[in-house]
Amino acid sequence: MYDEEKIVRLLRDERTRALAFTQVVDHFKEKLYWQIRRMVLSHDDTDDILQNTFIKAWTGLDAFRGEAKLSTWLYRIASNETLNFLERQKRKAVSIDDQENSVSAQLESDPYFDGDETQRLLQAAIASLPLRQRQVFNLKYFEEMRYEDMSQLLGTSVGALKASYHHAVRKISEFFRSND
């Protein structure tokens, strides 16, 4: 059973840090993988970002003050790594007109994607959202994260998050209507 308070105590002790961190990785790798994957779509890119997330967490353990939960801290690192990756991709990306085709091609070529046409359209719609709306939509829709937890994770007010989610849902609905 994963006990966050116990794990944090073990992480603070140099003698037990490596073993405790292995438990953290085992506990969070799948959750973080899917959080990242919903943003970047590619399995290989997701693995790279996840690895970078855990490397940053390991090297930053001394900076973890415990003011937030360890899970929140890890989600924040993963979010920042993902957003940094997406910003780098955007600089060298295709035009917005080609974005839907790019997402579809990326999903079709991904051996780990087993969704149908509706799932492909949903992913293309999500990919067309601005980064913050995409992030909020994924956390709310797929992770079923509460706005209060998202607020702590993203450093944004609950009201702003609700507005971002509402706008994201509206844009996704419009995307589906335009692709009927």
Helix and strand topology:
Blueprint: H1 4-12, H2 17-40, H3 43-59, H4 70-91, H5 99-109, H6 117-127, H7 131-142, H8 147-154, H9 158-178
Helix pairs in contact: 1-2, 2-3, 2-4, 3-4, 4-8, 5-6, 6-9, 7-9
Notes on the protein architecture:
Helix content is 75%, strand content 0%. It has nine helices and no strands. Helix 3 crosses helix 4 and helix 5 (99-109) crosses helix 6 (117-127). The model has no long low-confidence stretch (mean pLDDT 87).
Keywords:
mainly alpha; 9 helices
Would you summarize the structure shown here?
The protein is mainly α and 180 residues long. Helices cover 75% and strands 0% of the residues. It contains 9 helices and no strands.
In whole angstroms, the N-to-C terminal distance is 47 Å
- Count of helical segments? 9
| Overall pLDDT confidence | 87
* Biggest sheet descriptor: none
N to C succession of SSEs: HHHHHHHHH
Helix proportion of residues, in percent? over 70%
Radius of gyration from the alpha-carbon trace, in angstroms: 18 Å
Structural class: mainly alpha
* Cα shape: elongated
Taking pLDDT < 50 over at least 5 consecutive residues as the criterion, the unreliable ranges are none
Instruction: Write down how many β-strands occur, each being a DSSP E stretch of 2 or more residues.
Output: 0
What fraction of residues sit in β-strands?
under 5%
